[in-house]
Amino acid sequence: MKYEDFIERMLQEVKKRVESDVSITLHTATKNNGAIRKGFVFEKHKNHTAPIIYLDEFYESYQHGREVEELAGIMCMLYKKAIYEIKPDFERVIDYEEMKDRIVYQLINAEKNKDLLAEIPYKKFHDLAIVFYLLLEKSGDETATMLIKDELLQRWGVSEQEVYENAVHNTPVLFPMEINPLTDSMYVLTNDIIHTGASVILYDDTLKRAADVIKTNFYLIPSSIHEWILVPDDGVMTRSHLEGMVDEVNADMIPDTEILGDCVYYYSIKEGRLIV
Prior knowledge:
10 helices
């Protein structure tokens, strides 16, 4: 069964399994780096929350032999979980005073996300962009987040700069930086849950702390939106060689939605700054 036929069949089966006051519509979303995903939006009358459940994984399961009816049942269970367990309270979300301590930031590729950046607050960071999220839930390594768009900023009545300042304060507290050895000569720089951890290079003391560990100048390779690989400048690797490696890895090994960038950065201990 082709993907479009699968979607139509799933829609029919899911509609049989939900309450009569729940409408289900197909939604096409542009995710990080321009990746396109399709999912069902579940809208319940008089409920501000409208969960979206994406179809990619369901279609993959169908291709591996699972029946549409079974998959529709699983989707309906996920919908009920979203409604009753992790749904964001709309009134809380639009209350800036309650939400300001939950504002965090993330780094994404600026060029690949230029359409998205047209409708959200952001700040440029070299070839990347700093974007903002609400951290709705954090339990162990699991998080539930909500992208902050211009519309929410207008409801809050606050400036982009104020949101940025909150994120600068909150993110290092909620997602502490970690640096761990990868090999004898390479290190992984990320956060405590290894998720959207590339943003740790924005923390005030991250690069100095990394230099204290590595003991020399180093290159920063954008491994993914989740982490950086730090390579000591010991004369073995050149920036051009590392950039070639990044191009190959991005093309062959990193999912499109997790690519951060292709620019290798450099940290100078003497200058105490990042060099692009």
